């Protein structure tokens, strides 16, 4: 792929995409079945980042650092089921579009962690906890989920004797 740019950022010019799709030859391979391509997703304020050749760990901090220059990030979820992907929710579609145009095809680190960015389908990301794989930046940092130190129920009080443990039959054994 041909890249144009200077410094750490490399921008894909798209001039060699046809050659790359044709396995490096100037004709399409007839031996490979053609897959039906889905139409590109409509613009959305949530982007799907696919990290190609992830040689270094990718966390919400890394994704947040590269995404915030393009707009206010609200939520990030990183998942590592099949490779490394992340969903980034921006405040508005315009910010997401700027980030997609600026970051698609760029390397996070020199020579690796190349970004493939497309618009995602969800309308909102669900973040259940703030950690290295998910973060909700709309919550203030002093607001933490309520953690319970006490059990939900106190020990039962019985008068007279001690109850038998559940499903423990000390009877005939048969």
Automatic annotation (TrEMBL):
InterPro entries: Nucleotide-bd_a/b_plait_sf, PTBP1-like_RRM2, RBD_domain_sf. Gene3D superfamilies: 3.30.70.330. Residues 14-40, 153-174 are annotated as: Disordered. GO terms for molecular function: RNA binding. Pfam families: RRM_8. Keywords: Repeat, RNA-binding. Residues 46-121 form the PTBP1-like RNA recognition motif domain. It comes from the Eukaryota. PANTHER family: MATRIN 3/NUCLEAR PROTEIN 220-RELATED. This is PTBP1-like RNA recognition motif 2 domain-containing protein. The lineage of its organism: Eukaryota, Metazoa, Ecdysozoa, Arthropoda, Hexapoda.
